[in-house]
Amino acid sequence: MPATDSTSKPTITPASGKEISYLALGDSYTIGESVKQVESFPYQLQSLLKTEGINVNTPRIIATTGWTTSELQSAIVQTKLNQKFDFVTLLIGVNNQYRGNSIITYKKEFAELLQTAISFANGDKSKVYVISIPDWGVTPFGKNSGKSQQSIAKEIDDFNTANQEITIAAGVSYTNITPESRNAMQDLSLIANDGLHPSAKMYGEWASALKPKVVAALK
């Protein structure tokens, strides 16, 4: 993101014509596995921001289903991306939990990724948004995974406690979508047809939760 003078920062309106760049970092929850691309939360967020007169370009997404923190780190290095962005979202960790990886390693790698996200936002912490890990244990896949919903929920909560503490300590915005993700236990419309990933409806809830925070920072 280009540096701006806070004393003369213009309001972003359709008339201003300013194009806003957006980088989304993550895994399957960021690319929107099992839903149409436009139904993923980055694209729904882009659409919601446009209704506020904020002209967001097509999101640049670095995310793949199955990625852990280390795999996201490696992918970022491989892209050799040196562009700065007007805002950045980060959602990562479910595959660390799913694979039974060390939470100590997760803390280290998540903290590094958060600093990378801040760097992509040109060092502006107010333009970085971390989203918590949803609870996949309540999905049909989770119920048939061989692990109890309670044990999955506890592990997800432990990983989220770690990423929230790191995020808040860094002075970055944190959006906790995990409690709402557990509504999928009663509301199957929140789950995609694959029985595991969020539906467009749930992604829309995430985008709506992010919208006012991003609007406040960009306008």
Descriptive notes:
There is one protein chain. The protein is an alpha/beta fold and 219 residues long. The chain has one domain (18-218): Rossmann fold (3-Layer(aba) Sandwich), CATH 3.40.50. It has nine helices and seven strands. Strands 4-2-5-6-7 form a five-stranded parallel sheet, with helices on both faces. Helix 2 packs across helix 9 and helix 5 packs across helix 7. The two termini are 14 Å apart. Mean pLDDT is 93; it is low at 1-15. It holds the Pfam family Lipase_GDSL_2. Keywords: Hydrolase. One of its GO terms (molecular function) is hydrolase activity, acting on ester bonds. Residues 24-203 form the SGNH hydrolase-type esterase domain. This is SGNH/GDSL hydrolase family protein.
Q: CA-to-CA gap between the ends?
A: 14 Å
**What is the CATH-assigned architecture?**
3-Layer(aba) Sandwich
Question: Would you tell me which CATH topology applies?
Answer: Rossmann fold
Order of helices and strands: EEHHEEHEHHEHHEHH
Poorly predicted regions are 1-15
Question: Quick one: how many beta strands?
Answer: 7
Strand-pairing-aware structural class:
alpha/beta
How many domains? 1
Shape type: globular
Query: What is the radius of gyration computed over CA atoms, rounded to a whole number of angstroms?
Result: 17 Å
The top level CATH class name: Alpha Beta
Oligomer: single chain
